[in-house]
Write a structure and sequence with these properties.
The complex is a heterodimer of chains A (481) and B (321).
Chain A (H helix, E strand, L loop, with lengths): L6 E11 L3 E13 L9 E11 L3 E2 L2 E3 L2 E2 L1 H15 L6 E8 L9 H11 L5 E4 L1 H12 L1 H8 L2 E7 L4 E7 L2 E8 L6 E4 L2 E5 L1 H9 L13 H18 L11 E2 L11 E5 L1 H7 L15 H10 L1 H4 L2 E3 L7 H8 L2 E3 L5 E2 L6 E10 L4 H19 L9 E5 L6 H15 L9 E5 L4 H10 L6 E5 L8 E4 L9 E5 L7
Parallel strand pairs in A: 1-7, 7-8, 9-15, 15-16, 19-20, 20-21, 21-22
Antiparallel strand pairs in A: 1-2, 2-3, 2-4, 5-6, 9-10, 10-11, 11-14, 12-13, 17-24, 18-22, 19-23, 23-24
Helix pairs in contact in A: 3-10, 6-8, 7-8, 11-12, 12-13
Chain B lengths: L2 H19 L53 H4 L4 H15 L15 H19 L4 H7 L2 E4 L5 H6 L1 H4 L4 H10 L6 E6 L4 H21 L8 E4 L5 H9 L3 E7 L10 E7 L10 E7 L6 H18 L3 H8 L1
Parallel strand pairs in B: 1-3, 2-3, 2-4
Antiparallel strand pairs in B: 4-5, 5-6
Helix pairs in contact in B: 1-4, 9-11
Classes of the chains: A alpha/beta (481), B alpha/beta (321).
Chain lengths: 481, 321
Amino acid sequence: MNDSKKKETIISAGIDIGTSTTKLIISRFTIMNTAETTQVPRIEIVDKQVLYKSPIFRTPLLDSSTINVAEVEKIVRSEYAHAGITASQVETGAVIITGETATKHNAREVLHYLANEAGDFLVATAGPDLEGIIAAKGSGAYDYSHRTGKVIANIDIGGGTANIAVYKDRVLLGTCTMHIGGRLIEFHEQKITSISPTVQKLLAENNRVLQIGDSSESPNVNFVVRLMAESLGRIVNNEVHEKDLVLLLGHLPNWTDKIDFLVFSGGISEFIYKHEPGTDQRSDYDDIGKDLAVALLKDEALQSFTWLEPVETVRATVLGAGTQTTEISGATIQVARNELPLKNVPVYHYTFGMNLQNGLENFEEAVKHAINMYDVRREGQNIALYLSELPYMKFRDIQKLAAAIIQVMEKRFDPNLPIVLVVQTDHAKVLGQTLLAMNVKQSVICIDQINVEQGDYLDIGRSLESGVVPVVVKTLTFHSS
Amino acid sequence: MNEQLIEKITKMVVEKLQSKNLKIVDLPKENEQMAVTLFQETAGENRIPEEKVIPTPLGDVKFFKTTVEEKKPNNILLRTPTKEDKNDDTLAELRKKTPARIAVGRAGSRPKTSTWLQFRFDHAAAVDAVYGEVPQEILNRLGFFQVHSRVMDKEEYIRRPDLGRRLCDESKKIVKDKCKHSPTVQIVASNGLSAKAIEENLEDVFLSLVQSLKNLSIDIGTTFYVDKGRVALMDEIGEILQPEVVIILIGERPGLVSAESLSAYICYKPRIGTIEADRMVVSNIHKGGIPPVEAGAYLGTLIQKILKYEASGVSLVKKEG
């Protein structure tokens, strides 16, 4: 039928600003209609090709608590030039601030500045759980979990944090983040130059002392990395002790399955797998990174698992951010083009429980509650309504639903904001058109075939030639802490 | 036993099997490791799970277990998967991907009773769809008048496709008199090979399509219904009414997966002699395929594109580049 085998490509960028290193990746997605010619189109990403991988840069800092924005931007611009692209060509992708860098006082500002400057639709992401999820996708652990059907934990250890994400058959089972990383103790000329507060606390709890100026060969350094490895082993086995709490950042491990395999990614795993040329010396980073890798390799609890080699080590997160965050909406949707892109819209999930009538009865109350919840300050924060478990719907049912939506959207503190709907079933186009036919005064963005959940944040990009929109869902499912 | 009775009994048994399928029974703890996996997850609308027939003494009328035991989803968390589990998972995965009757098991060299009954049931539904009639009530509700092709009865309809492609003389006159001349879009409905498809889907596709065209400010002619029509009937209608686009909503040849699937055939300026390559189709419109309401919404934008390029089918693909 129409444009059935026509291909379209979009450029995606991934930028990872980590505790110790910053890197960038450019890839190209090929999008085409995979439906048979007599079917309604189904537009999918059929190929992802990495075009350019930047070198690993040290994350530029102004001082210990400020990221050097100008330098970061310079890196991004010069790497774009090396890759032969311009910011305006970047149609999707994500910027992620990870590890300790996320705690810098200007982290938020940097993130949003870069997201706006470095591409047409670049999504800003942060949060320890999301880091773990994105790293697991970039390291290959996510795919391994599908191929093997086993429970796989991806442990991404960088300069500041270890981000664990557990997957089984591509389903996220849980996450956990720990204060384990290379830069928690730093050296200069074999002398300790900085010790992170967490490590100080850890040492104090064990009645040991380490000070600035001590030798980098101090047995206490070895004690710290060994303790980190042991603690990680217990967390992976879901046996959390009192003494591990100091190393935990946020919530306890929240998966219940027994883990079968481990995948290590991140800068520390580079010392184990050596994918990058010339990073084999501890002096490169002048921190406990290499000692930590050695401790992981020696730890019995960790060694009792089978380790799978990641497809990327230090670049796992940036690869995940650049290639695994974008989804494509269903092909039959209704979107007001002038309202896109739309960023950081919180998702409210409303389920109809397969019964339209019952669902509609509580609809208004529930959405009103959601509006109050997400727009606490009543300043007009929009929400995306995710409508799930709709029954089989006749045309008149769609009209009823549309009428209810129009009514409830008036309850927003700023009723003129666009109506953003995500429908689980294939009904986005008819629902959107019905709203328009009812002369709704707001713009309508109604998409389907995207998996979102309560508490996720949604970014919707501009329409592509094939009529679909790229969507980035920022899952914060486990962000309960 | 007469045929009707057999069919009735078959239907009753199948319905009973289906109703059991809905019951989810908590499995007692000691049965966690039970090796039997019942085939629950299927993509088909009316597929039923494999059922164990319990041998009963002669004269006992109770043949089937009244409940279906199902593994609780969280049991998966408790057990370590064995090779067989993995295998079952793989089959379940495959079954989810298709409504076809795959991995349904067998009893000796023949299909299992429930599989066989389901097959008979689906086949009967397909036959019914061909020989059934569209209830007049639906046409009245939508305000369609009815005309006829040159076919006299169903047997002739099947034997003589050529006669299904033309309107009878009287119908031609009616269409000419009653319909708006030279509309932008002429919508036609016909039972084709499945009256059931029209009965189930016509209203939703039509209302959604009309809404979509109205949103796009595209002018619509007078819609009517042709009894026992074929797709190429649109050529003669094109000649009579001279519309820009004809869209015919017609029942598809029923299969064993669905007997109520509707197709929408569309053509830019169809006239006698139009070649097949200029027609295009959106098929598989039914409950288990493209939802009828969504199909109507999509068809509206597809017609908009056809009008923009002044072409349909292969010519449209060429013009689009």
